[in-house]
Design goal:
- The protein has about 400 residues and is of the alpha/beta class.
- It has one domain (about 100-375): NAD(P)-binding Rossmann-like Domain (Rossmann fold), CATH 3.40.50.720.
- The chain has helices spanning about 30-40, 55-60, 80-90, 100-105, 110-115, 120-130, 185-205, 235-245, 265-275, 280, 300-315, 325-330, 345-350, 360-389, and strands at about 20-25, 45-50, 70-75, 90-95, 135, 165, 205-210, 215, 250-255, 260, 265, 285-290, 295, 320-325, 340-345.
- The strands form five sheets. A seven-stranded parallel sheet has the order 3-2-1-4-5-7-12, sandwiched between helices. The chain has a two-stranded parallel sheet with strand order 6-15. It has a two-stranded parallel ribbon with strand order 8-11.
- Helix 1 (about 30-40) links the parallel strand 1 and strand 2.
- Helix 5 (about 110-115) runs parallel beside helix 7 (about 185-205).
- The longest helix is centred in the C-terminal third of the chain and has 29 residues, at about 360-389.
- The chain starts with 18 loop residues before the first strand and ends with a helix.
- The structure holds nicotinamide-adenine-dinucleotide and uridine-5'-diphosphate (UDP).
- Nicotinamide-adenine-dinucleotide (NAD) binds near residues 30, 78 and 212.
Length: about 400
Amino acid sequence: PAPASGRVDLDGAPVAPLTICMIGAGGFIGSHLCEKLMAETPHTVLAVDVYCDKIRHLVDPAPPHLAGRISFHRLNIKNDSRLEGLIKMADLTINLAAICTPADYNTRPLDTIYSNFIDALPVVKYCSENSKRLIHFSTCEVYGKTVGSFLPKDHPLRKEPEFFVLTEDESPCIFGPIVKQRWSYACAKQLIERLIFAEGAENDLEFTIVRPFNWIGPRMDFIPGVDGPSEGVPRVLACFSNNLLRREPLKLVDGGEVQRTFLYIKDAIEAVVLMIENPARANGHIFNVGNPNNEVTVRELAEMMTEVYANVSGEPPLEEPVIDVSAQQFYGEGYDDSDKRIPSMTLINKQLGWNPKTPLKDLLETTLTYQHKTYKEAVKTQMSQASAS
Ligand code: NAD
Ligand code: UDP
């Protein structure tokens, strides 16, 4: 047996040090997971991505105390024969690689479908053929719209949890029509979930599927024109951060009426580490990972971020802090939206004893402090250069 790591699993058994092939390790979630694994566990990470900016502090070069525990492999899983070797070398593969920004789903539907389904196929195949465990990242978006959203606006049943709570093995997946290309992402993610589930049923693949519900925190996405394309549209946290940094109104798509639940990335990473270290409890399951206590409308999120940012930056809020835009203007043809996302926490609580901790206000304070410190000067410089040219 492998030497013990000093860590024990939820059943009191020692956790052996693992080698983990982490695909998409250079992204938002991957960077936090790498940090946590390096700081608190003895596991080794083979970090795979096309870029490493967000984990440069861990891999370029690895600091002496991490030598031999983390290595970066710059490769595109679309077309690189080194992938199978890395999966074979590891005990566990975690696949985070994806195009996962809504602005891409309706404007780059082919890339979205290829990235989320076709490009994930070899990962699943190599895990299955080599009898390696797989933790695959799906999304809460596979639930689509709630059953309640089809009832009239003031219908009393809309208040009943069974009409909106999203439960892994019970809730249906409800997407819009094909012309609403927003759903290309959810549909590709759903099909790869079904394929992984089928590999488990027919070929004994050991798998866990994660459905993140709006995990947010430092290092999420990019600030357009600073560390990403000026015309790029990131997810809502980075869009609103960008507006606040530039002192421009936050744009509410279609009135900002839809609801989301936001989970602090550091709480989320604890759930992932539990999955990594408790295979007997996690295998064969699909887990919602979210924070049902942190529900707001997008409008409320904008108001809260405006208030928190004023506190952390010392800059007074604008007189008109938000403006309405149509989805057509903001995202273009084919956009649609999920109305409400409350995760059932029953399964993850039962299997892994995990619960989210951080209230929305606290996580926004930490995150916006980071955004202000990291980006304010760069945004100022970029704005003055743009106005001079
Ligand atoms: P991210 O975009 O920050 O990270 C994805 C990483 O994958 C990027 O670093 C990217 O370079 C890499 N990648 C993409 N295609 C690749 C390829 N062909 N070869 C090699 N590397 C490639 O996104 P994230 O927020 O960290 O999300 C990670 C996963 O979690 C995704 O599968 C996403 O669908 C899922 N997810 C995240 C959230 C969330 O709240 N953050 C919500 C739902 C689902
Ligand atoms: N949104 C918005 N203004 C923005 C960016 C996003 O109103 O500048 C809305 C978007 O239409 C959606 C919600 O915020 O209703 C969350 O968007 P995000 O990109 O984070 O992804 P989603 O939760 O839809 O997957």
